[in-house]
From TrEMBL:
Stated name of the protein: Ribose-5-phosphate isomerase A
Function of the molecule: Catalyzes the reversible conversion of ribose-5-phosphate to ribulose 5-phosphate.
CDD domains linked to this entry: RPI_A
One GO BP annotation of this record: pentose-phosphate shunt, non-oxidative branch
Subunit annotation: Homodimer.
GO molecular function, one term: ribose-5-phosphate isomerase activity
Gene source species: Bifidobacterium tibiigranuli
Family per record: Belongs to the ribose 5-phosphate isomerase family.
InterPro entries xref list: NagB/RpiA_transferase-like, Ribose5P_isomerase_typA_subgr, Ribose5P_isomerase_type_A
Amino acid sequence: MDKAQQDALKKAAGIEAAKLIDNGMIAGLGTGSTVRFLVDELGRRVKEEGLEFTGVTTSRRTQEQAEGYGIRIVNIDDVDHIDVTIDGADEVDKNFNGIKGGGAALLWEKIVATNSNKIVWIVDESKVVDTIGKFPLPVEVIPFGAGQVVRRFEAKGYKPVLRLDADGKPVRTDENNYVVDLHLERIEHPEDLAEDLITTVGVVEHGLFLNMVDQVIVGDPNGPRVLTNANK
């Protein structure tokens, strides 16, 4: 699939997901290429349909895009609930376990998600897999002692790689932390791995989002299809 086809599927999923936002809602707005299409569509609805809602964003990038359309964005601590959060995912399997954090926003994304009444992911069909793990699993770590955390992960066979930017410097999250990507190929026991990662001192958060999502909207050549998590 070339990038133009992939973008068309992402856009279709984003437009479909935008229908979930109604007047008066508090909506969590995720981060990434698919969410960009969602925010474009919400911006169009604000302008052309008079849609009025409040957004809580998972990154500064999304905040800037949304505010450019005149969408009201507030701090997560200024709301008592979030009706629905719409976000992308890097992988999602048949058990509705996902990997997120390719855009280095996993910590804010997880905080917004866990404070949401409903979670919806929008993905193109390439992100739907049998077993998660082919996409490197992002782990957010504080800079102090990050090298020690990497060594600990190496000893466990997690194949960690510190994420670097184009200049060869460590990528910084919105909280100024580092991201270590684990090249695992297959994650057979995601709950055990999640527990091991979050209890590692120096780790702030990991990109395993396990059985959290309510619906996944998949951009498909035949039109967006909705997968519903029966366990939620």
